[in-house]
Here is the input.
Amino acid sequence: MTPAEIKNFKDIKKVGNVLFGVRLEKKLEVRDTQEKPGMNKQIEIKTSDSVLEKISRPLEISLFDKIKKIGTALWGIRKDEMQKPINNQKLVYVTPTAVECVKNAIDKKDTAIKTSTSKHSQAMIAAIDTRNACQKAALEKTTAKEQFEANKVCADAFQKGTKKNNMTIEKERNEAQKTYRTDLKSCSNSTVAHYFMLQ
Here is the structure.
């Protein structure tokens, strides 16, 4: 949780460098901001024991279930593993029989991510070197128009290559995480799996 979110939790405890707490329930609240024209109404909806929360940025979408669009914003119910302790426990003990399996799953996941990161870095360095040579060659053109068009070819090629490279590393990392989740489920019970999936 971030410092700004502390007010939304109770029974806060520090485990290592991370704060854990029980999320406070929110009451149905509609605040009409008509005094500020152009602003949307701020809405918080309580659904049984869960709260529909506004998703502040695209990167947080994976943290929510039952996502729906209200107005121009996305709202959802925060996934249980992020909202409250697993099985109402603050800490999870990995049994000795599962430890080696979990360690192997962690190593396999991190090795895959390191390999992907290394490939991404090498591809980026190669793309920069190619652009460097291309832009220098563009300076050899004899008119401003020719220089501009040659330089544009360099920039377009670099952007296209970078986009493809970024898509590749994202796909590889997602595959590594998917394999990791599968490996953890085979190690022990779902409690262990869910706990380590958050790491």
